Amino acid sequence: MMSGANSTSDLSPSTRNALAFLMSLLAFAIMLGNAVVILAFIVDKNLRHRSNYFFLNLAIADFFVGVISIPLYIPQVLFDWKLKNEICAFWLITDYLLCTASVYNIVLISYDRYQSVLNAVSYRAQHTGILKIATPMLAVWVLAFLVNGPMILVSQSWPKGVNKCQPGFLLIWYIPLITSFFEFLIPVILVAYFNMHIYWSIWKRSKLNRCQSSPGLASVSSSDCGHSCRCGLFPRTSLPAPKERATSLHSERQGRKNSLLLSLRMQLNNNVIASKMGSLTHSDSIALHQREHLELFRARKLAKSLAILLSVFAICWAPHSLFTIVLSTYEPENRPESHWYEVAFWLQWFNSFVNPFLYPLCHKSFQKAISKIFCIKKQPIPSHHRSISS
To answer: For residue 148, what are the contacts with CB-CB under 8 A and spacing of at least 6?
Structure first.
């Protein structure tokens, strides 16, 4: 994150105090929303499966944005406090790490939903071990640190002629381009790629489901009908042969009669079994169709939430990335100052406020856990009210 230059130096004290109050309120809301997600995950053991671990990783990153990033930003920008070099370096590394980890966690959640839709069977059967879950979570933090951490450590945290706490590599024009590429462009491309593939898979499955829904049942019934016709009550082999001999023994007639009755009984049993198998196949096809319909409904719901995820992420991060790219074309001493850059800068932190409401808190499993935490129960209807209503 590139902190704003001196765009707030011309503000009146009352305006600065109002902005400080609003920023503090935002920091508190970020901490509260993400703390609820973390607490729900700790309290309710039913939430401890693969996708919810990624929500927890995102909530941890966003929670510390409200604890560290914003509180240390307010005094130095609004009230011109000069932080010590050690505190400045700590704030820069932590702020870059948390914001980038938040972005990469969004990519991880998008990939997890992509796998759950395109490879639903293998997704449920695999990735259940804690090591397989912890590995991508840890990889998010390592990659987030590698994007900016080494450059912050080797560059000057207090460049000459700058009174604000900002990394020295911002004075090199091409490094902000590289960081914007890894912090915004690659994540938004990946999330958009996952989203398009999910929608493409849903479209193909919906088309196949429409083609097989009615014709499939018709083909089953027609095949059953053909089977019963081929195995009719009186197939050719079971019909009695015409009388060729006028004189036959009484024993032959009796034996033929018995064999005819036996064949009729066997044929009736075969027809009953065939009709039962046909009805079983018919019911199985209906159950399969209903299961496919539920899977499509679930996939559409995930795709819709992923599209909202992409839209909110792009709105919160695109303005600052665009400003960073444009400002990197100017010389450090000639870069223009604008309050709109501060707005774009704060939009990134606003994304940490939206994330808990956009992802975990809109899921019924998290809502049930939160209701348990705050003891929110449905009040039973008193007996006298029930009697009156009846």
So the answer is: 93, 96, 97, 100, 167, 179
